[in-house]
Amino acid sequence: MQAGDELKIVQGPFRGEISVTNKELTLFTGNLYAGRFQVELGNEFNSQPRQYSILDKQEDRSYYAADGSIIQGGALNNPYGKYWMDLGGSLSIHTQPQDPATRQSGLGSVKLNPVDARDVYHILSAGSQVLVR
């Protein structure tokens, strides 16, 4: 890009579609394609096809394990990584953890690489619709 070049800004609202088969998150604004991102699904991902809504978004969210332990936000072994978006029903979209041992966890999670997670976090807003199919 050079000085004087025009930059097209796509206005939202944006929505997402997660293809479990293709392991992709595709973003749209209305019916227009806005981007595609590869995802990894948690070990026990078993979401039925349905419409979700982003209920909450947090950076460096602490992780609360089933055994009562807490992994602080920003810790390398935090399964949520830097960006976390709650879809409800124990399903979330978040950054792929940095710690290889932690990458295998994430029961109901949709994981994105750090750059894609940052982009999706800033594109989707609370209330954005996400279809899992």
Q: How would you characterize the overall build of this protein?
A:
The chain has 2 helices and 12 strands, in the order E-E-E-E-E-E-E-E-E-E-H-E-H-E. With 133 residues, the protein is mainly β. The strands form 3 sheets. A 5-stranded mixed sheet has the order 3-2-1-12-5, with no helix packed on it. Strands 4-11-10-9-6 form a 5-stranded mixed sheet. It has a two-stranded antiparallel sheet with strand order 7-8. Strand 7 (63-64) and strand 8 (70-71) form a beta hairpin. The protein has a domain at 39-128: L,D-transpeptidase catalytic domain-like, CATH 2.40.440. The model has no long low-confidence stretch (mean pLDDT 90).
Oligomeric state, counting identical vs distinct chains? single chain
Assigned CATH superfamily of the domain at 39-128: L,D-transpeptidase catalytic domain-like
Strand order of the largest sheet: 3-2-1-12-5
Strand content bin: 35-45%
User: Which fold does the CATH topology of the domain at 39-128 refer to?
Assistant: L,D-transpeptidase catalytic domain-like
Continuous helix count: 2
Largest sheet: 5 strands, mixed
Name the structural class: mainly beta
Indicate the radius of gyration in whole angstroms: 15 Å
Q: In the CATH hierarchy, what is the architecture of the domain at 39-128 at level 2?
A: Beta Barrel
Number of strands: 12
Uncertain spans: none
Mean pLDDT: 90
